[in-house]
Amino acid sequence: MAGLTTYGSYVPYWRLTASAIASVTGRREGGGTRAVASYDEDTTTMAVAAGLSALASVGSVDHLDSLGFVTSHPAYVDKTNATAVHAALGLPRAIRCTDTGGAARSGLSALIAALRSTETTLVTIADTVTGPAGSPDEVGGGDAAAAFLVGNMPAVATFLGSGSASDEFTDRWRLPGESWAKTWEERFGEAIYTRLAEESFVSALKDADVPAGDIDRYAIVGLSPRAAKTFTRTCGVDPSHVVDDLTSAIGNAGAAQPGVLLAAMLDEAAPGETLAVTMLADGADTLILRTTDLLESRRQPTPVAEQLAAGNDELRYADFLTWKGQLVRQTPRRPDPDRAAAPPAYRAEAWKFAFTGSECNACGTRHLPPQRVCLECGDMGDMSPVRLVDSAARIATYTIDHLAYSPAPPVIGAVVDFEGGGRFACEMTDADPEKVSIGQQVEMTFRRMSDTDGIHNYFWKVRPAVEPPTELDTEESAS
What we know:
Elements: E1 3-10, E2 14-17, H1 18-25, E3 33-36, H2 43-55, E4 66-71, H3 82-88, E5 96-101, H4 106-115, E6 121-128, H5 136-140, E7 143-151, E8 157-166, E9 172-173, E10 182-183, H6 186-208, E11 217-222, H7 225-232, H8 247-250, H9 257-268, E12 274-280, E13 283-291, H10 304-309, H11 317-323, H12 342-347, H13 349-352, E14 356-360, E15 366-367, E16 383-387, E17 393-401, E18 411-418, E19 423-428, E20 441-452, E21 455-464, H14 471-478
Parallel strand pairs: 4-5, 4-6, 11-12
Antiparallel strand pairs: 1-7, 1-8, 2-3, 6-7, 8-13, 9-10, 12-13, 14-15, 14-16, 17-18, 17-20, 18-19, 20-21
């Protein structure tokens, strides 16, 4: 039976508090924080991060048939974004890449479609949600990503069934080219969504042949929080089994939110548990899975809870507006970055996108970027490709540059050494300059280096490795 072979998620490092927004706009929209994609991130880079997490426990990807990328805010419109995700993950050329998007419902729908297919598919879902200054979408939106490897292989969770209900009504809409959506008054959609949630949920229970009382963990999220809360009181699931929708911690990340919730449930579930997730958006979709004994050995490397704990909630509102393109600041008095040229980018795809260097077969020296002649022993042409995205690395030395332009100054330049050999100089992101240190463990992260003439120039940076919370951290959070 089809199921989830592996899974992964990604929650950006930066957080914006509702109080920081309210201090400027004067409009209070409750408490909590929202996850914010950095100035060098977009839905493509977040999908890559989630995909790397999902593939961390997979030995080979040669069995993959397709890669799907789902978002309502693509980096490109008239270009397949999934190909950049495919290249950054270092996947074989024979894999079919497809984009799916346009609406928040697309994420869970794409996952259900993959589970009902006979193909082996990597489903990546990434989204970013914001709105006008002080609006509920700005305060309650969020940025995040999730990824699931799906197919008829040994699974961490088997597919039991799904149910859907669709209806046409104007609740939320955004025209092509507009930055954010418009919404109707929430009470209009509440009653409709509550009915659709019931129809979807009952249909999924029937398809899975599972009573509501047997659901061990249930997540419901979507465009109508009021409808979600109303339905949980009558759905028949034990109230203690309804999980937190995480909107107070990261906001509602649109199409990616049900994927992040599913990943969070898999992080904490025990083998043999029944999980269900419902998405309310232009209808309702419900997915039901059952975990297996493989879950313990294939959990994602960094659980959602640890990603939440590692976030920085000191982002300034002005910086958030700048990163989202809503606040125009003085540009640096320097030449604009050169446009990324297509021919050299294509020729260096393995290096630029997959971070693949070369290793000398004569002496074992690694070269970043790849070389034809070994810089250590001088051997010519006897090189093997070596991909270092997943290799452990530590900072050999670094510098803090307060003069170089950056939307998030200062610029941190780092020289990192990889385990097994290889040294590389690059930019460090998602880091507090005062906490950077020699010997610090870092990890590679796919980012957007610049944007010129409508071309996104992607490459790799490093970021501090997410470390599990210590016992002291756990005690402090509990208190």
